[in-house]
Amino acid sequence: MKTSTSPYAAMLALACLAIPCHADSGPACYDRLTQPHLAIVDSHLHFRPFGGSPILHQDLTRMLKNAGVLYANVFGIGQTLPYDSACTYYLNCPGTPVMPNLKNDIINAQNVTELPVQVPKLTMSMSFADLAKPATVKPGMSVLDQEFPGLFKWMGELNLVKQALFANGHRPVTLEEIRGWGPFMAALRERNMPIGLHGDLGDNDQPTKYLNLITEVVNLYPDNKVVWLHMGLSKELTDIDPDKHIKLLSNLLDKHPNMMIDLSWRVIADSYFFKPAIRAKYIPFINKYSKRILPGTDFVASDDKTFDSYLEELTVTSYIYQFVDDEAFRNIALGQNYFDMLRLQDKAPVVCGSRQVKQL
Ligand SMILES: [Zn+2]
């Protein structure tokens, strides 16, 4: 592995030392004293970039295996740059439209079926759906079903509202459009497919500006497994009052038993979990709601990235797991929630050496 120059070099070095523990096939119990706190599931991973070339599929699956990731969701990307654009990142190209489309789901499906691997176990996700055009979603599902019957088990990441994309033609999905989701949400329920939504909660000036959108979704479709990604946080919302945020999340989770959240994207660690006083507020919340939380990196596989880049994202997004209790560690980082959601027979190992790092 090439030497990392990132500010997380020390964390990476520790993680790398510990990685062979993950690769061992199924220890009877998971010893937190000697094994790493990195998640073994990446339920939020984009195999396709916004534009430009991706990391080759076989290289990415090898990276995951070498990082100790045993299960991963295969997302496309909900915002694709035009094929003839020189851009690889939408933020560098305001004015260039970005749209969801079927292409990356088809390419991912082709790669997964033509280049099979034992580790990690991959779950295919439909990322093409345009939530502002609900009538197009079921027909898109049919296209994928026809080409790859039974292969897709998840839907997402889809953009309910993503402020970072406003300069590229995206706008928040409207309440009226959400009300039009009925047919495809019914299809997802029939197939037990979770749907992962990027729904910004707001910005630093108006932290709950868009709360009504995700609330409308879970109110209207209470029987769907809805995963609210990044807990609604983003680069535009880096300083919401943790008490207010936690209360709002708790209320939603209490009211909607099928709703989940994910802790993906390093923005959450950088702006919240790396800060001890803020972290101290989230730990009891994560422990209490540990059955309702999924792990993920939100890595985007553009070909300028290396194994170190992936390992850094995994390390940063897993940072919080060293502080949670054993039950939460097993449910989230060791994958039990993920297995339950997908109705897999796999069982997370029990934890036999508690190493919950004390707060502060
Ligand atoms: Zn994402």
UniProtKB/TrEMBL annotation:
Domain Amidohydrolase-related: 181-310
Signal peptide extent: 1-23
GO molecular function: hydrolase activity
Keyword Signal: yes
Top-level lineage group: Bacteria
Keywords assigned: Hydrolase, Signal
SUPFAM superfamilies: Metallo-dependent hydrolases
Pfam families linked to this entry: Amidohydro_2
Protein name: Amidohydrolase family protein
Origin species: Duganella flavida
Highest classification ranks of the organism: Bacteria, Pseudomonadati, Pseudomonadota, Betaproteobacteria, Burkholderiales
